[in-house]
Specification:
Blueprint lengths: L5 E4 L2 H17 L7 E5 L5 H11 L9 E5 L1 E3 L9 H8 L20 H15 L1 E3 L2 E3 L2 E4 L24 E5 L6 E5 L1 H4 L4 E6 L5 H8 L19 E7 L7
The structure holds 6-phosphogluconic acid.
Amino acid sequence: MKKENLIIFTDIDEIARLAIDYINSQIENFQPHTYFTIALSGGNTPKKLFKQIAENYNRSLAWKRIKLFWGDERCVPPDNNESNFKMTYDNLLKYIDIPPENIFRIKGENNPSEEATDYSQVLKQNLRFHNGLPSFDLMMLGLGEDGHTASIFPDQLNLFTAEEYCAVATHPVTGQKRITITGNIINNASKITILATGTKKAKVVSELIHTVPGAEKYPAYFVNPTYGKLRWILDKEAASEL
Ligand code: 6PG
């Protein structure tokens, strides 16, 4: 892995600033009326980053030029504590000046297979295409201890090569249904970031970055941009076994 594709941070503000600078530098070169599209990750890891942006950088971004999507969502209502939308609303959305029409929520309360189809249409209608597929400007991913990313779990690796843009996944332990963006769309992003923090992620991070034998059992192993760039963003704890 090239060194510039790996960032080990000590303060989340470093990452907030990097994100802001990157997004603004991209928008600067966009045609007017072109949006910067972001697929947000869920879970707990992004909370500190979202809070940092909400509290300190709301006015640093042209939110009206940014469209927000999710890489995956739990099949629960948006007011459920399991909801990635609710996590994002509580830590970011309720504090920033983003036009509501720029927020594209995966409707976890809907029938899962219908919502997977509907959200595929949302991507088709709102993203620019590259190589014949919808392409996010920024795909934010998290990483599970089992090496899952988005909601592509080790026992559902087929979702990495699924034809559909979005699919229904099942959490292997809880059986919870999820909607996930599939691997071909993940890899078709212009920039992919994998943000991992904490010592619990250190082993899987190390095995993935060093591509040790057996790492291909982890779905995150298959994150490999078709034309864009992948950047690992780790705190010291998650990087402690590199
Ligand atoms: C989700 C995610 C998932 C998450 C990882 C890491 O809906 O849970 O999008 O891919 O990023 O499970 O979760 P934590 O950040 O909570 O460790």
